[in-house]
Design goal:
277 residues, alpha+beta, 6-stranded antiparallel beta sheet, 4-stranded antiparallel beta sheet, 14 helices, 10 strands, globular
Length: 277
């Protein structure tokens, strides 16, 4: 089990702000983070079944991906970015989690890896960041971000309703779903669902379901549940299967995922979000 000390140490490092009221956009969650410590932060990011936009206000946030790329400032982490590390000192940032159904409109697609927000939004990213930087409070920042997101959602094409429905079914089933019946239920062939889902969500339906299942397993591990129980109740063939899936998504063992610092503050920052549908 994760020790109480490790949870307290991770949570004590951060001041976390959340919106006073739920946003008007479904499939969107936000949280503000400020690092109380003056120590250098260097941590591994655990994959999550949402596209994450990070807007940096601190002394310089650096995101490293497994391809050797580095992103400073505002970055977008896709659904399956591979091993990613976040480094920096004096970090203050806004994180926005987007359901891939919403991210398709907000970002013009769902990146699988790590990209710069400027690469997706151009000058609009710079203008939005300047407004967020000048805001007097976290509440103002949340309002500015909501406005920017709402404008993009209203002016851009959404995913196909069938794709959105399949994603929501996957979330509701915690990833323990069979794709072929879902295709039949929305009136599509398996081939059509595979192609449209991949082009709009950024992953194949099978990998998306595995990612959702992994996320549920990771949070259960972080809550102190044993790997054998998590595997048995999470739809894995056995504990070895869980080990392989966790290693494949996070690059570390289930024991290491259970102690991940990011997961220690998840309940505080994203309690109302869960897996975004």
């Amino acid at each position: 089990m994760r020790s109480a000390d490790s949870v307290r140490d991770a949570a004590a490092r951060w001041d976390i702000a959340t919106p006073a009221a739920p946003g008007r956009l479904p499939g969107v969650a936000m949280a503000g983070f400020r690092d109380r410590s003056r120590e250098v932060l260097d941590l591994r990011v655990v994959p999550h079944p949402a596209v994450t936009v990070v807007v940096d206000f601190g002394e310089g946030l650096l995101v490293d991906d497994d391809g050797g790329g580095e992103r400073r400032g505002s970055a977008v982490l896709g659904l399956a970015p591979g091993p990613v590390r976040v480094r920096g000192r004096g970090i203050e940032c806004l994180q926005i989690r987007l359901s891939p159904v919403v991210a398709h409109a907000v970002l013009g697609g769902c990146p699988e890896a790590v990209v710069s927000l400027e690469d997706l939004w151009g000058r609009e990213a710079v203008r939005t960041r300047e407004r967020l930087w000048a805001a007097a409070s976290w509440d103002d920042r949340f309002a500015i971000a909501q406005e920017a997101l709402a404008l993009r959602v209203a002016s851009r094409r959404s995913v196909d309703p069938e794709v959105g429905e399949v994603w929501r079914r996957m979330v509701a089933g915690r990833g323990q779903v069979r794709v072929e019946p879902l295709a039949y239920e929305v009136g599509w062939s398996r081939k059509r669902l595979w192609a449209r889902f991949r082009s709009q969500i950024g992953l194949t339906p099978k990998r998306a379901a595995r990612l959702i299942r992994f996320d549920h397993a990771a949070h259960r591990l972080a809550a102190g549940h044993g790997a054998a129980l998590v595997a048995a109740e999470g739809g894995y063939a056995d504990q070895s299967h869980l080990h392989r899936e966790v290693l494949g998504f996070a690059g570390v063992t289930p024991t290491a995922v259970a102690a991940a610092p990011w997961l220690a503050v998840d309940d505080q920052a994203w309690a109302a979000a869960g897996v975004l549908a």
